[in-house]
Amino acid sequence: MNSKFIHMKKIYLLAAVLLASVASCSEEDFSESYADPSKIAVSSVEKQFAGFLQANREYVVPSYWNYFVVLRTTVNRYTQSVGWVNATAQYVPGAGLIGNRWDNYYSFLAQYRELEKIYNGLPAAEQNDKRIFMIAATIYLYDHTQKVVDLHGDIPFTEAGKLSANGGDYGASLPKYDAAEDIYTKMLDDLKAFADELNSINVPTAIQTGFATQDIVNNGDMSQWKAYCNSLRLRMLTRVSDVASMKARATSEIQGILANPASYPVVRESDNNIQIDIRTLGSPINSTGFRTGLEDWGGNIAGKAMIDNMKTNSDPRLRVLFEPGPNAGGVYNGLDPMMLGADQQPLFDGGTISIYNRSTVSRNEYFPGILISAAEVQLLIAEHHLDNGNDGLAATAYNKAIEESIEQYYDIRALSNDNVAGPVAAPTAGEVSTYLASSNVSWSTATTAEQKISRIATQKWLHFNVIQPIEGWAEQRRLGMPTFNFLPDDANAQKLPPVRWLYAPSENTYNTANYSAVRAKDNLTTRIFWDVQ
Questions:
Q1: Any idea of the CA torsion for 308, 464, 296, 349, to the nearest 10 degrees?
Q2: What's the Cα-to-Cα distance from 168 to each of 111, 227, 488, 505, rounded to whole Å?
Q3: pLDDT tops 50 at residue 215
Q4: How many CB atoms are closer than 10 A to CB 406?
């Protein structure tokens, strides 16, 4: 077998996972659950669904590789969710980290294509009974496809991951690139249809039992899948709401979602966040790699902008998200990105700069993989009402978002099995009220639409921080807020943070003909289609 085929097999084929119950299996059981691709026919919809859900688990549940290799030097810095020592070429995302995430996504997509293949091979009656597996899998796929589009722009999608379905025909399986806007359109069309279908779907009791067993996201809870579907729609519609060709659709569909919560529920309370929970540390679904992933090489150092914002406004999240440096005398300090690296290094090494709270975040081995939160949804709702002239509803959603964000992080701290950072007092109602009334936070003290969207954008930034950094970077680019100061890298052609990632180097090598169609866009300065600021 030639090397080109082997590489493409790595990206576009799959080692299908046969996993009856991810949450309860051991590492040994998990390893043995990977099927030989030549024997993929022994799989089933149920097992393939479970394998598909876990295929990208390290990009959902906090993991070493994602945080240390992928996020530490890229989006965490682009949003100044962390502090770092300035260095040459710091604004150019490495080819290795891009390639790794790219390969993982296409292996994940290939798992989905195999699920499609198995499902499509069933008799019509059995397809009808097991329809929920395909709906849920597609919602989950679209959540992560949206992120890949938001990082790269145009990507191979409709023809990608089909080597197995194409009977191993390598030439027929080299996928074309789909336009980013076309992918968004397809996903929004499908999600809208799913939102209606979920209101009428009939899942047989036996199928529901199996679905609940295999579903590591919502544990078979149909109401949660409805909320996931509609919340994802709300996020994606908001993301494209300033695109001229999609603006009317976005406004109309968001209004339809919010006007009919019985049919189109969204996540409104943090107790109903869409997330992958850690149930046992012995399972492959765990956050044990978060510690080294975030902490190694100072990846957990606090940035000045975030610390200053929280201190100035007495943010109740400050103490649960950060801890003072060991030599700071209890004072929270962030690292200034405008200092020269030679001047930053002594501060970086000296123990006076704050770090992310280890007991809440990096050493919390039960930290969940958050997909969509109530705070995010409420901020999306606030933005919609602001754009459509309903200031009262916008204010209500904005304040609710902050309350839900505070609750979320203190609830996550309560899950922790670590106390190295010491105890954290729960916020009082008075603290929360004081924060909501502070001059830089209060909705009522913002007198213009620009000031109000700035408040929404700032709360998104604070809420996403290092926990949902890809969403944070997308929203910061889309809104152009908050604004940050960066030290230009005058020794490099890329002097400031990029507006997109490059494509994986393997695309030019192995998918050359299709890559040539997007080669002109493959730079760090071509904006994603929704980035129209």
A1: -10
A2: 15, 38, 48, 23
A3: yes
A4: 23
- Window from 19-28, 133-142, 178-187 with minimum mean pLDDT: 19-28
| pLDDT at 350 exceeding the cut of 50 | yes
Confidence (pLDDT) at 165: 87
Instruction: Determine which helix (DSSP H) or strand (DSSP E) holds 195, and give its type and residue range.
Output: helix 180-197
Distance between CA 20 and CA 215 in Å, rounded? 10
DSSP state of 53: H
Which H/E stretch holds residue 275?
Answer: strand 274-276
Beta strands in 68-166 (DSSP E): 155-156
Cα distance between residue 34 and residue 114, in whole Å: 14
Check: CB of residue 79 under 8 Å from CB of residue 27. Answer: no
Tokens of 394: 């916008």
Q: What span, in angstroms and rounded, lies between the C-alpha atoms of 10 and 177?
A: 18
Instruction: Report DSSP letters for 277-310, one per residue.
Output: ----TTSSS--TTHHHHHHGGGTTBPBHHHHHHH
pLDDT score of 42: 63
Q: How many residues would you count in the chain?
A: 533
Q: Is 95 helix (H, G, I), strand (E, B) or coil?
A: helix
What ranges in 351-489 are assigned the alpha helix state H?
A: 374-387, 391-415, 429-437, 449-464, 469-479
- Give all domains of the chain, ordered by start, each with its CATH number: 3-289+364-521 (1.25.40.390)
Nearest of 56, 115, 106 to residue 276 by alpha carbon: 56
Q: Is the dihedral of CA 67, 70, 72, 78 positive or negative?
A: negative
The tokens describing 341, both together, are: 């690296």
Dig out the tokens for 117 from the structure: 């293949």
- Cα(423)–Cα(419) distance, integer angstroms: 7
Token pair of 344 as six digits: 């930053």
Distance between CA 490 and CA 402 in Å, rounded? 39
What whole-number distance in Å separates Cα of residue 318 and Cα of residue 173? 50
